[in-house]
């Protein structure tokens, strides 16, 4: 009635369908026909509400889908179309037909149980209006029931644990968890693993810098992808994404880094925890159940130079080293979640540092940031040139890489060296001033991490990987050089 009101009052283009009982493959076992089939498979009794004389009309799912298609293309705006069949069956008849297919004695198997409230005796739809559009029921009852039975016998574990749904009077609280696990099983069975055209990426972080670049890379390489619609901390919305997309790999480029910088996290700790820890772990757990590899973009800003890794020594922190920097709340959450993710064999953690790209208009680009500062500290650091390394992350997904990886270019580059290249290639008049860490501490809320990461593992896997200085020149400054 609400839909009709909007059509009549505001001209909203609507068509309404009214349908009777539908059956077929993939139907959740709380419904009559799949419930009876599964119970018969298990050798259990078939519970019938009341005396079983209630009459229903059953249509095979493919016929109903075809009806929707006909109505969509031939139906008249504002009209209502009934989707039904003249062939009616008692619930007892349905149970007996299923018993016959299993070779069971219906007298011994069927069990009458307490009727459910408001159990209609009959509802019959006149489908002549729909038939005038050219639709006809195509699947005979015997054929549809046989195809449905065949599907359930070949997919006995499709829905996972459905014990609650098979009760004579199932409660919704019993059904929904089973539904979730069943959807994951459906996802697993539908997945394709490998490389090439059968890849499909689900990317989280659509509005973020890395997430946006990943989408462009997929388009350039002809890789099918979709962005996640759910929030990381919302398990239900993530599961809907998995079921909708059926990905072979998940790329997690979502997270809270703070705007305009990590100082934001110091005053928004709950929000930071919610996404960086709870959300990331939720995504990893769902993908683990579905046997999907997660490419998780993390941070290398969880280390700082120390006695074993002195500044200028060339000794970088390795993948197995324990984080030693918790000066900022952002780094604290990222170090915590990285430690927990070690237990997930389906996660590939990529430690990104001070990301750089050829887009010098992006305010998150490390080069763009420091060119806008009044003063900068001059410390050598490991950094990540996204133009070179993001395509490598796609290749790592294809190669099924897992565990922790220092995801930076080999070597270090100082802030002054970056700014010198900026002056030489981009702006000959550019000038800057330096200040030390003590002076910097007076103008920032949270301390910053400075370190060198050991990239031996990544370089061994990808020997062609350029050093940070060479990569910055090739991918950033040469393409942007002012003539």
TrEMBL record:
Top-rank taxon, per record: Eukaryota
Annotated CDD domains: dTDP_HR_like_SDR_e
Domain NAD(P)-binding: 2-147
SUPFAM superfamilies: NAD(P)-binding Rossmann-fold domains
GO annotation (BP), single: UDP-rhamnose biosynthetic process
All copies of domain NAD-dependent epimerase/dehydratase, residue ranges: 202-364
GO molecular function terms listed in the Swiss-Prot or TrEMBL record: isomerase activity; oxidoreductase activity
Pfam families: Epimerase, GDP_Man_Dehyd
Pathway recorded for this protein: Carbohydrate biosynthesis
Keyword line: Isomerase, Oxidoreductase
Signal peptide bounds: none
Family from the record: Belongs to the NAD(P)-dependent epimerase/dehydratase family.
Stated name of the protein: Uncharacterized protein
Source organism of the structure: Capsicum baccatum
Record lineage: Eukaryota, Viridiplantae, Streptophyta, Embryophyta, Tracheophyta
């Amino acid at each position: 009635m609400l839909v009709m009101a909007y059509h009549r009052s505001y001209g909203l283009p609507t068509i309404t369908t009214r349908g009777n009982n539908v059956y077929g493959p993939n139907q959740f076992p709380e419904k009559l026909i799949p419930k009876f089939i599964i119970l018969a498979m298990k050798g259990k009794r078939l519970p019938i509400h009341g005396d079983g004389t209630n009459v229903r009309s059953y249509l095979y799912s493919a016929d109903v889908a075809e009806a929707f298609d006909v109505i969509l293309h031939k139906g008249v705006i504002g009209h209502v179309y009934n989707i039904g069949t003249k062939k009616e069956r008692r619930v007892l008849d349905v149970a007996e037909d299923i018993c016959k297919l299993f070779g069971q004695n219906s007298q011994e198997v069927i069990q009458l149980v307490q009727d459910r409230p408001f159990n209609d005796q009959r509802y019959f739809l006149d489908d002549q209006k729909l038939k005038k559009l050219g639709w006809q029921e195509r699947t005979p009852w015997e054929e549809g029931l046989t195809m449905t039975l065949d599907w359930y016998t070949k997919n006995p574990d499709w829905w996972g644990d459905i014990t609650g749904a098979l009760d004579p009077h199932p409660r919704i609280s019993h059904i929904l968890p089973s539904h979730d696990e069943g959807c994951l099983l459906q996802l697993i069975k539908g997945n394709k693993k490998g490389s090439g055209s059968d890849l499909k990426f689900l990317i989280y972080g659509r509005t973020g810098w890395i997430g946006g670049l990943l989408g462009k890379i997929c388009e350039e390489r002809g890789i099918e992808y979709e962005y996640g619609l759910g929030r990381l901390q919302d398990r239900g919305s993530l599961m809907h994404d998995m079921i909708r997309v059926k990905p072979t790999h998940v790329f997690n480029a979502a997270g809270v880094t703070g705007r305009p910088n990590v100082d934001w996290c110091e005053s928004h700790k709950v929000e930071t925890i919610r996404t960086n820890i709870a959300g990331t772990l939720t995504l990893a757990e769902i993908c683990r159940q579905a046997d999907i590899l997660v490419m998780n973009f993390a941070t290398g800003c969880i280390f700082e130079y120390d006695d074993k890794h002195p500044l200028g020594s060339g000794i970088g922190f390795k993948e197995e080293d324990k984080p030693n920097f918790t000066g900022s709340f952002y780094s604290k959450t990222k170090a915590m979640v990285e430690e927990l993710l070690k237990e997930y064999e389906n996660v590939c953690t990529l430690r990104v540092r001070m990301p750089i790209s050829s887009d010098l208009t992006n305010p998150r680009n490390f080069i763009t940031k420091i060119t806008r500062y009044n003063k900068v500290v001059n410390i050598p650091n490991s950094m990540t040139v996204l133009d070179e390394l993001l395509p490598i992350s796609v290749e790592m997904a294809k190669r099924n890489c897992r565990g922790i990886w220092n995801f930076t270019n080999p070597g270090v580059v100082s802030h002054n060296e970056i700014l010198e290249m900026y002056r030489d290639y981009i702006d000959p008049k550019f000038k800057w001033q330096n200040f030390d860490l003590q002076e910097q501490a007076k103008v920032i809320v949270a301390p910053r991490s400075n370190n060198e990461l050991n990239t031996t593992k990544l370089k061994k896997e990808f020997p062609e990987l350029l050093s940070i200085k060479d990569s910055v020149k090739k991918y950033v400054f040469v393409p942007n050089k002012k003539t």
